[in-house]
Write a structure and sequence with these properties.
alpha/beta, eight-stranded parallel beta sheet, globular
Length: 217
């Protein structure tokens, strides 16, 4: 098994180049204004122009309405739409149908009970992303909070659909996370930053190397 890596929150050419050169399979652009990783669609379009066809471009939205999604889709060619808010299965299905793009749906995980969301979304989303619940503190974001969940909740699962692991991953713990969960795709944002919104190219390279090495150890 090989591990694919998604570097989310790309907002500079330096971060984009580092992700592509290190072998990322996905790069994510955050279209959620409260996030320190937010990038306006026109600026994202400039960055996206430098992404090879072998790397999938993901647009991340949080409880966005159709005009907000359309504003991004109209100026850059995305390969996936990531819905990282409290979107219902009906909303996910609507977005998928209207924009004609595969959808990644985030599911917040804290206990085994949260995995019940799988049954609600697996028929309407193309990829499920398991992330930690946001911390209960002012200013917490839907994702990118450097918080992980109990990875053993996913241990031994053999789902017949694609899924990603996210939440609190770093170059130092991603190999353990992969071994515990069997994740085939890992997603990182804060774990490769010097501060929120500022990606570190060396950390990006180290994360991707560690993720890929995990299945070889």
């Amino acid at each position: 098994m090989s591990v694919a890596v998604k570097i989310c929150g790309i907002n500079t050419r330096l971060a984009l180049d580092a992700a592509v050169e290190a072998g990322a399979a996905y790069v994510g652009f955050v279209f959620y204004p409260p996030s320190p990783r937010y990038v306006a669609p026109p600026a994202a379009a400039v960055l996206a122009a430098g992404v090879p066809k072998t790397v999938a471009k993901v647009g991340l939205f949080v409880n966005a309405d159709d005009p907000a999604i359309a504003a991004a889709v109209s100026v850059l060619s995305l390969d996936f739409l990531q819905l990282h808010g409290s979107e219902t299965p009906e909303r996910v299905s609507s977005v998928r149908g209207r924009f004609g793009l595969p959808v990644v749906k985030a599911i917040a995980v804290g206990t085994k009970t949260d995995l019940a969301g799988i049954d609600l979304y697996r028929e309407v989303a193309d990829i499920l992303l398991f992330d930690a619940h946001p911390p209960k503190r002012p200013g917490s974001l839907p994702g990118g909070n450097a918080v992980s969940f109990d990875w053993t909740l996913l241990a031994g699962q053999t789902w017949a659909f694609p899924w990603m692991l996210s939440g609190g991953l770093t170059p130092l713990n991603v190999a353990e996370a992969v071994r515990l969960t069997g994740a085939g795709i890992v997603d990182v944002s804060s774990g490769v930053e010097d501060r929120p919104g500022l990606k570190n190219p060396a950390k990006i390279a180290a994360f991707i190397a560690a993720a890929k090495q995990a299945v070889e150890d």
